[in-house]
Design goal:
Layout lengths: L1 H20 L30 E5 L2 E2 L3 E3 L5 E2 L1 H12 L6 E5 L5 H6 L5 E2 L7 H4 L2 E3 L8 E6 L8 H4 L4 E5 L3 H9 L4 E5 L2 H9 L5 E5 H9 L7 E8 L2 H4 L6 E3 L3 H16 L2 H9 L6
Length: about 280
């Protein structure tokens, strides 16, 4: 019963979207929350840990970059500091930037205890690392002209509509799988895709919510468009999101990060960081 299976999957996507954004649904932007406030996570004893060195890069703004004064900055940098404060290990925390292709070797050589640089969670990386729970996931989103009447349920709203999507991308595969009534229009470049949406040549676009949020907030969009429907979380297409990677045998440190991530989420610290770096939220 493929039709029923598809419908159930769409309902699950919608439920995930509602869960992720529900705590702030009444206000924009919505704040993603992945932690159950009733869940109690143990705080491991880190007294025997001499230091915690976070390794990141400088080439992935707004997550990690060098500011105008040449200092390491970004969402990941501030998140690492917040975790250290929550775990009361500030004096033992360090944050260092390295080229991306040197990160794995640095951890293997004992030059760092944690990667906070967007290491993908895959079967291969699980052979090398233990991971915290994800602290940020990247949903797929639809964007449309501000005057558009498209709204949930989007699998019906996009029926027969021209929806732009990046050719060969995970989002194209997701659009074709879960929104089969749409009329995909594929592009090889994002600027062409966004340009045609702005000029009214498309009914909407489907893609990475974070990238779309930056475009919607920038001068390139000219205030033309807005998010409609979603957000949609689909790990089978979009991965498991961002998590902190530690040595495979350092599960205690990963558990400590889980505890701290939950605490800063409940206390609103994560929300402050999210709004600072993503003023047009992608949830």
């Amino acid at each position: 019963m493929p039709g029923l299976t598809l419908l159930l999957r769409l309902l699950l996507l919608a439920a995930c979207a509602a869960w992720a954004g529900a705590p702030a649904r009444a206000a924009e932007p919505a704040i993603p929350r992945y932690w159950d406030e009733k869940e109690q996570l143990p705080r491991p004893d880190l007294s025997a840990v001499a230091r915690v060195r976070f390794l990141t890069t400088v080439d992935f703004p707004p997550f990690n970059f060098l500011d105008k004064e040449g200092r390491l900055a970004g969402f990941h940098v501030e998140l690492a500091r917040a975790l250290c404060r929550e775990l009361d290990i500030v004096t033992r925390c360090q944050i260092q930037a390295l080229p991306w292709d040197e990160l794995d070797a640095a951890v293997a050589a004992g030059q760092g205890e944690a990667l906070i640089a967007g290491t993908a969670i895959t079967a291969a990386t699980r052979e090398l690392y233990a991971f915290s729970r994800p602290y940020l996931r990247f949903p797929a989103r639809f964007a449309a002209p501000k005057a558009s009447d498209m709204a949930e349920p989007m699998h019906a709203a996009v029926s027969g509509r021209r929806i732009g999507v990046l050719a060969g991308s995970r989002h194209e595969a997701m659009l074709r799988r879960y929104f089969p009534a749409a009329r995909p229009v594929t592009y090889s470049r994002l600027d062409w895709l966004y340009g045609d949406l702005r000029e009214g040549k498309l009914d909407g676009v489907f893609g990475d919510g974070m990238r779309l949020s930056f475009w919607l907030a920038g001068s390139g969009a000219g205030g033309c468009c807005r998010f409609v429907g979603g957000p949609y979380l689909a790990p089978e297409f979009l991965g498991h999101g961002l998590a902190i990677a530690v040595g495979r045998d350092d599960a205690v440190l990963a558990q400590a990060f889980d505890h701290a991530l939950r605490e800063i989420g409940v206390k609103g610290v994560f929300a402050e960081l999210y709004l600072k770096y993503f003023p047009v939220g992608f949830y």
